[in-house]
Amino acid sequence: MQLHREIAQAGYEGLQGGHPGLCSKFGLALLGSGLLVQPADADELAASWKARDAVAVTCIAGFGMESDTEMDVYAAAICKAAVDHQIPLMLETHRASITQDAWRTVQLSRRFPQLRFNLDLSHWYTGQEMLYGDLSARLSFLKPIFEQTLFLHGRIGDRCCMQVPLAEVSEVGLSIFRRAWTQVMRHLLLSSHEADMELWFCPELLGPTYNYARQFHDDAGELQEETDRWQEAQLLVAIAQDCFKDACSSLKGGDRFSTPTCSITDKVVDNEHKINQKGNTSCKS
Q1: Which of 22, 120, 258, 259 has a CA that sits 20 to 30 A from residue 252's CA?
Q2: 258 CB contacts (<8 Å, ≥6 apart)?
Q3: pTM of the shown model
């Protein structure tokens, strides 16, 4: 209960993976997530989170060894489940899944224009060395994904690590993430369905269990995380809010759009850290 209370008191609007009753008690929107081992899992995932009154769900599909035909089966199942259960179900761009390859994911988006994405750009930025070659051409190529994204996982990585402290992110690296996030927001604001759609921004700062948060030995020889993930999440939200302002200002009459508000997910939360070291933040526009 303390976690949900303090998240609400901090001004966030939602919690991904939170407790339905506690989210309701503290006025937090509930966001879901899950793994699709097989296409049929999409229906159960959407149904289970809908039953808990979640407002949106993200999913990782497959294991990255699927053919285009098998990818299409997953995509069709995700789209159908979203419609059948009337809940946004977003496919995450993630390594070791059907979206691990940016080129094939773009082709998938063109075959399924109704498919919506949770863009975690760090998987492609690190895994596919986005600094190689013509960066502007790469970002232009990803336009179909940006246009179909309704959820952003805001972790920022570098060329070798998917999650690094913002103080260590190069200006070039930060500019790439800012450009991508701003494009996603701008496409949403240009959409004819903008009034009926929500974009959630969610910095996904995971702990050391899966080697996301890096650890180093302190003077006593104890392993310690190098950052406070709660504070890092706040900085990521501030960056996302700046991106949203840039997206609005680039449009004629952009000042009519409301400033995005923030929410948080449990992906950054683990039992090893105090409340002020926890958080997966989201920002709703």
Answers
A1: 120
A2: 285
A3: 0.89
| CA angle at 185 for the pair 179 and 189, rounded to the nearest 5° | 140
- Distance from C-alpha of 76 to C-alpha of 115, rounded to nearest angstrom: 8
- 117-119 vs 149-153, strand pairing mode: parallel
Residue 273 CB neighbour total at 10 angstroms: 17
Q: How far apart, in whole angstroms, are the C-alpha atoms of residue 106 and residue 5? A: 40
Round to whole Å and give the CA distance between 108 and 69: 10
Q: Are strands 200-202 and 149-153 parallel, antiparallel or unpaired?
A: parallel
**Beta bridge pairs of residue 30:** 15
CA separation for the pair 269, 277 (Å, rounded): 8
Pull the structure tokens for residue 243.
């991106």
CA–CA dist 67, 199 (Å, integer): 30
> Dihedral sign, CA of 71, 73, 76, 82?
negative
DSSP state of 49: H
217/2 Cα distance (integer angstroms): 30
- Write out the chain's pLDDT in tens, 285 residues: 888 998 888 878 888 988 999 999 999 999 999 999 999 999 999 999 999 999 999 999 999 999 999 999 999 999 999 999 999 999 999 999 999 999 999 999 999 999 999 999 999 999 998 888 888 999 999 999 999 999 999 899 999 999 999 999 999 999 999 999 999 999 999 887 766 788 999 888 888 988 888 899 999 999 999 999 989 988 998 999 999 999 999 887 555 555 555 555 555 544 333 333 333 444 454
Contact at 8 Å (CB) between 112 and 79? yes
